Amino acid sequence: MKHKLYLPLIALLFIGSCTQAKEEQQVKQDQQLQQKQQAKQKQEASHYKYTGKIKRTYFASYNFSGHFDVIFNGVIMTRNRKDGVTSGIEDLNPYIAKKGLQKVTLMLRPLDAKSKIAPEDVKNYFIDIVYTEDNDPSAVHKVKRCSFPAVYKPVDSLVYTWTFDADVAYELTGFTNSSDLSKEDPKQLLAEVLEYYKHVHEVINKGDAKDYLQLYQKSREREMISMYMDEQKQKEYLQKLEKRILSSKGFMQPLEDYRLLIHPNGKLISLIKPDGTSPLYSKDSEGKWKRYGLDLHRVKGSHKFEVY
């Protein structure tokens, strides 16, 4: 009888021991996989073979008011729908696929739909294209001032496209393999894009930096390569992203008041609020906001979106 009583207990202890061993083994395997993925990501960017020795980083600088969109190579880089003067410096390299001709478009009109732009004010609206070499911010080189041609009577709006040659030391895929979304059903696109935004919203709200970095992996690699980040800068960049995600844990605000935006190139898609900003943001207990950009595209032949 004693043997019969002790046997189940021994079996349970044995099963528990095996389960614990399996769990420990799984944790170890997960840690090893994570380390391999991190090492691979570092290698892909840090060991990238640049096509030239001159490492130029291009920027667009602006400082004016109004209802405007700055479009670079078919991508809306920034838009404004707020009162007052808006200034900014946009990194252009992540949207420069290779050296050669690049396009900048500025669409502008007064915030007050009843107002017009006076001829003498046209000169106040311009974008300066500049670059630095080898990530040296102390030496800024001018490329081009994108200013509107003169007008001779008040106008409702201004739209113009300028070009400039960029000399970058890399070559990326860009949107070559991306599908044209402008030909698809907007309602279906909205449903799919919203689902992706909800997933990213949940990931950030959980403070899951690992999943966030995985979702944005290709985007991060493109940025690190195009901005010529060395291993140390890549490390700092990734640590900064992780810290940002953790600081938004539990503070993500509801996804609301948005609409679908297909960028002029037809290949990039996002959700935006009426003021032109992303509806993906956090607001912590101190009232500090952190907004997260999320641009999606779909590779030809695929039915799934991914972060660009």
From TrEMBL:
Q: Which positions make up the signal peptide?
A: 1-21
Please provide the record's keywords in A-Z order. Answer: Signal
Q: Can you tell which superkingdom this protein's organism belongs to?
A: Bacteria
**Protein name from the UniProt record:** Lipoprotein
